[in-house]
């Protein structure tokens, strides 16, 4: 064949590396070249390697010819990541996934290559190369090529290959496995120390140990696993592997392999990989001893088969008694307690010998029984949690700022939403808060936000109550009565006392306060003539000497003042607004205001009575023509400056002052 090793090649087979040719221009050039007929073959083949590197625009440029290719054209897209190829290309091609080679087939390929190159390779090196290649022929041949480059005339040995590949030596692996089989903690940690001292990466050591335990687990389950190809190992290592597999119980091998597998990824990019490896070693020792190695099994069974001496067992605690099961310890303690109880049965008859009449006449229990109800009132003050609804709402309202701050510590969003909220009261055992915004009210009822508010109320007030948020801040609209709002008890609306029409008894004296302010003195009169509004208390003697004034009819404002004072005294001195005067049906309504109101009389513009002595205000004096002429005359007499400049001069002066211009 033309493409076989040593063949002349073929012009109709073209290979393109898409890692470096992945643009639109490259795909257009390929599309133009693909239309030509083959030179010497039946087909023209284009092999595009790393096809997943082609851009989306490049695939779109190539899509038309892939959809409708000529009869002589074949495209082969080679990729390791087919999921990155766009769907329009994958739907128009056949998918042929390449599988990895099995270890026996890979070994045959490597042996044939070494024979063709006339290179001496030890039999124990092939498993290392196969494991490093991961089943890929290309990668395995690349690893073999690197190893052969550093060999001498003696060929490729196991020690040289393990050092070049960085693989853990079989000696370290065997030391770690033997330490786990015998539960030797010192041997396990020494193996870890030797691996670190040899320059091995902890993660690589862990991965190699996991592969080794995988082989042991398969060999224990399938004795002829080597012949069946399930385990790839050199012939000189098969006996060692079988011996190690027989030293563990099946459960112990599975537990150890599972523990290593769950911790191997933790060592990737770890800051202290050695510490993680030592922690893993401690876990493996516990798994091996707990699962039970074959050598440790009879010791555990012998200890379990001798339950008679439970007391001397704690003495050898450093050896094996450290791992005493909890169930065994509880059974041992119960047996000891039963033995102690059975060893002292004598006190029982002594108690029976106590004369029975003694407890009967003792009157002590009776007062004790009477005193026992006394602590019962102690729980009576416990109805604190069951506080009245109004008191709970009042406590929350008084500490609302602290509640919001507490909510903000757990849920900042809920604290912000509570800014405009208001505590309305209690309804059916639920604390109701109101909010004018419906969206925020519904968000406050969200379980996460609502729980934050409930917890904050519990921490601040000490009462745990369910909380709900409603739209609106009116308690009555939320169905909350006045008793459950928690506000101070509202005052009852003051109802003015019904005052009947003023009926003066003929023999009743008039109170001094009802006389009003009295009659004002005339303007400019002597001060001594001004009558006092409130006279000192007069003696009956003075009353007899002074002539009695006839009771005059009170004015309406005086009656209102009297009623106000009476209501003030009736309410205990509390300042209350005066009630409106009662409507007297007999009094006619005032006339409707007219548009053209006549001016008030000049002598009494404000309606004051003439006898009060207050002079009427005088209108402001009007300006006369003489005053205007006087003002003009004074203005004309002021000195003035006449500007005798012409317009051009004025303009030039303005330009020079404002703009700094200079005449030319």
Can you list the strand order of the major beta sheet? 1-2-3
Query: Which topology of the domain at 199-302 does CATH recognise?
Result: Zinc Finger, Delta Prime, domain 3
Oligomer: single chain
Q: What percent of the residues sit in helical stretches (DSSP H or I)?
A: 40-55%
Strand content: 5-15%
Low confidence ranges: 291-322, 347-386, 488-493, 499-516, 524-545
Number of helices: 26
Structural class: mainly alpha
Overall number of strands? 6
Query: What can be said about the biggest beta sheet?
Result: 3 strands, parallel
- The CATH class of the domain at 199-302, by name, is Mainly Alpha
The Cα radius of gyration reads: 57 Å
Explain how this protein is built:
- By secondary structure, the protein is mainly alpha-helical.
- Among the domains are: 13-90, Rossmann fold (3-Layer(aba) Sandwich); 199-302, Zinc Finger, Delta Prime, domain 3 (Up-down Bundle); 389-484, GMP Synthetase, Chain A, domain 3, CATH 3.30.300.
- Helices cover 45% and strands 5% of the residues.
- It is built from 26 helices and six strands.
- The protein has helices spanning 24-34, 56-67, 87-90, 103-117, 125-133, 137-149, 158-165, 170-181, 185-197, 202-221, 235-246, 250-263, 273-291, 297-304, 326-343, 347-353, 365-371, 389-398, 400-410, 412-417, 438-444, 447-461, 540-545, 556-570, 625-637, 647-658; strands spanning 13-17, 44-49, 73-78, 422-427, 430-435, 467-471.
- A three-stranded parallel beta sheet has the order 1-2-3, with no helix packed on it.
- Strand 2 (44-49), helix 2 (56-67) and strand 3 (73-78) form a beta-alpha-beta unit.
- Helix 5 (125-133) packs across helix 6 (137-149) and helix 8 (170-181) packs antiparallel against helix 9 (185-197).
- The longest helix is centred in the N-terminal third of the chain and has 20 residues, at 202-221.
- The two termini are 105 Å apart.
- Mean pLDDT is 74; it is low at 291-322, 347-386, 488-493, 499-516 and 524-545.
- Residues 161-288 form the DNA polymerase III gamma subunit domain.
- GO terms for molecular function: DNA binding; DNA-directed DNA polymerase activity.
């Amino acid at each position: 064949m033309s493409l076989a090793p040593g063949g002349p090649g073929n012009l109709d087979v073209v290979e393109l590396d898409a890692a470096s040719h992945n643009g639109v221009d490259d795909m257009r050039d390929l599309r133009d070249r693909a239309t030509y007929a083959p030179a010497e073959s039946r087909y023209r083949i284009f092999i595009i390697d790393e096809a997943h590197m082609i851009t989306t625009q490049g695939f779109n440029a190539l899509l038309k010819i892939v959809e409708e290719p000529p009869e002589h054209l074949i495209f082969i897209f080679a990729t390791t990541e087919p999921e990155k190829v766009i769907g329009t290309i994958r739907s128009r091609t056949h998918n042929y996934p390449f599988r990895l080679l099995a270890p026996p087939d890979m070994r045959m390929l490597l042996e044939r290559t070494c024979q063709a190159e006339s290179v001496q390779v030890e039999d124990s090196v092939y498993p290392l190369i196969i494991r490093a290649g991961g089943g890929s022929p290309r990668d395995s041949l690349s690893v073999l090529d690197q190893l052969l480059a550093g060999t001498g005339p003696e060929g490729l040995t196991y020690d040289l290959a393990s050092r070049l590949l960085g693989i853990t030596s079989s000696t370290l692996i065997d030391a770690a496995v033997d330490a786990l089989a015998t539960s030797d903690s010192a041997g396990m940690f020494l193996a870890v120390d030797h691996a670190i001292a040899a320059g091995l990466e902890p993660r690589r050591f862990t991965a190699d140990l996991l592969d080794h335990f995988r082989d042991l687990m398969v060999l224990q389950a399938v004795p002829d696993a080597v012949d069946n190809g399930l385990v790839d190992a050199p012939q000189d290592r098969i006996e060692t592997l079988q011996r190690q597999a027989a030293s563990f119980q099946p459960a112990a091998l599975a537990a150890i392999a599972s523990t290593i597998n769950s911790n191997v990824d933790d060592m990737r990019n770890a800051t202290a990989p050695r510490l993680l490896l030592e922690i893993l070693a401690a876990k493996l020792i516990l798994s091996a001893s707990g699962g039970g190695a074959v050598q440790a099994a009879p010791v555990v069974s012998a200890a379990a088969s001798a339950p008679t001496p439970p007391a001397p067992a704690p003495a050898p605690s450093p050896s094996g008694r450290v791992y005493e099961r909890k169930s065994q310890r509880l059974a041992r303690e119960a047996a000891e307690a039963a033995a102690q109880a059975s060893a002292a049965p004598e006190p029982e008859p002594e108690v029976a010998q106590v004369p029975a009449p003694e407890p009967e006449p003792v009157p002590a229990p009776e007062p004790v029984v009477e005193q026992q109800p006394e602590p019962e009132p102690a729980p009576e003050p416990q109805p604190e949690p069951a506080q009245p609804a109004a008191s709970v709402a009042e406590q929350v309202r008084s500490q609302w700022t602290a509640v919001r701050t507490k909510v903000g510590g757990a849920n900042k969003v809920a604290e912000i939403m509570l800014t405009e909220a208001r505590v309305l009261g209690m309804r059916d055992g639920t604390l109701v808060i109101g909010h004018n915004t419906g969206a925020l009210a519904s968000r406050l009822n969200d379980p996460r936000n609502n729980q934050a508010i409930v917890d904050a109320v519990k921490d601040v007030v000490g009462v745990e109550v369910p909380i709900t948020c409603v739209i609106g801040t009116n308690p009555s609209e939320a169905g909350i009565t006045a008793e459950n709002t928690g506000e101070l008890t509202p005052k009852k609306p003051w109802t003015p006392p019904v005052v009947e029409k003023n009926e003066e008894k003929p023999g009743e004296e008039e109170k001094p306060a009802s006389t009003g302010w009295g009659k004002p003195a005339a303007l400019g009169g002597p001060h001594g003539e001004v009558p006092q509004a409130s006279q000192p208390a007069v003696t009956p003697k003075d009353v007899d000497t002074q002539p009695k004034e006839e009771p005059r009819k009170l004015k309406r404002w005086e009656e209102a003042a009297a009623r106000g004072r009476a209501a003030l005294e009736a309410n205990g001195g509390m300042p209350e607004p005066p009630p409106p005067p009662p409507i007297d049906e007999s009094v006619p309504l005032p006339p409707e205001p007219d548009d053209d109101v006549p001016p008030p009389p000049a002598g009494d513009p404000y309606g004051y009575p003439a006898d009060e002595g207050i002079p009427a205000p005088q209108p402001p004096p009007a300006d006369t023509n003489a005053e205007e002429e006087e003002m003009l005359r004074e203005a004309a007499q002021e000195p003035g400056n006449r500007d005798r400049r012409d317009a051009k001069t004025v303009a030039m002066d303005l330009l020079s002052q404002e703009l700094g211009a200079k005449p030319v």
